[in-house]
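Translate sequence into structure tokens.
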Amino acid sequence: MSEKKRALVIFGSPRYKKSASYHLGQHFANGLKRAGMDVEEIMLVKQKINHCIGCFTCWVKTPGKCVHRDDMDILLPKIRNADLIVYAIPLYIFSVPGIVKDFLDRQLPLVEPYLVKKDGITSHPIRNKLKKTDFFVISVAGFPERSHFDAMVDMFKKKTRPADETYIGDILIGGAERMSKDDSQDEFKALYNYIEQAGFEVATNGAVSEETQKLINEESMIKSENIDTFIDIANKYWDSLMPKDYSQIKIKKSADAKPLKITDGGMATFFAGMSRIFNPNAIPGLKAVLQFNLDKDQYHLIMDEDVCLAYSGPHPNPTTIIISTADTWMKISTSELDGAKSLMKGLYKIEGDMNLLINMNKIFSEKEKSDTSSEDISVESQKILEK
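Result follows.
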């Protein structure tokens, strides 16, 4: 019976498990395991790895052994014995994070100091190499274009080309910041399934099939015609994370606004229902107006600290405006459509403060559902009118 092939999956994000590269690497590792590989996962952020100091002790005084005593003593034998090494890493300044660079630098004891020429390239011969190793890279970036990965990929290819190692492929995904969020994981189920299939194929066939790679690209790549939209959304997202003091906003009701009741029916009932599950603890002291322009109809929600009221018609000074068809917004509200992907595809638009959209699930939470009746809502409405 042949020995099980060994794979090392190297997770290189300083953000530990709160990272897009971790989620992708995990699913890829699941595919390797499903194919029968012996998989060991290494979280570099949890390892003690000192900087290489360039002393060459590992070459001339203690061949194959570094002057540092740290976790590389354990990791170097694992590298020697691996049939496959997978790097799951984020892109940092067109290269790898510092902890990954230290891990790569400290692999110097694995080679000898002599210079040899192979395939027209000068390199160092591998020391005590036990087996041929395949390399695969999974990387993510905030920038949308794939070209940002070029320098990093070239570095890995140059590392493997002269030695008895083979760069067998990569999965490179731009615009991946949202993938790092725990509450966004459901959005990427289809992509994760394809990533797991890619791992299975690498373990069984030594490469990702063209069909699977195409599915991954279709699910993850931002088309050139959508990059401007992506940039706009990304900038609004980062702006939404900046400190904001909502308590100083002055809220006034439109003169023509009509309070909505649960008994009104249609979209009016929907927004009246939203006001009843308002969670004032989501953003303490929140004073804002969320307006919805749906087809030819307009509705808005006034949030004034502990109170949320629903009205028909436009508001003169909304904090955030969501522009959509009624059908699209209902599908997003019921999770039939993914909100982030729909925004990228232009199925709806947002104007103003994106923070309210990002936090909508927290601001309107079933767990905080109120027992307030529609009559009580009318009473609370009067309180805001008097302000």
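Note: Residues 55 and 303 are 64 Å apart (CA to CA).
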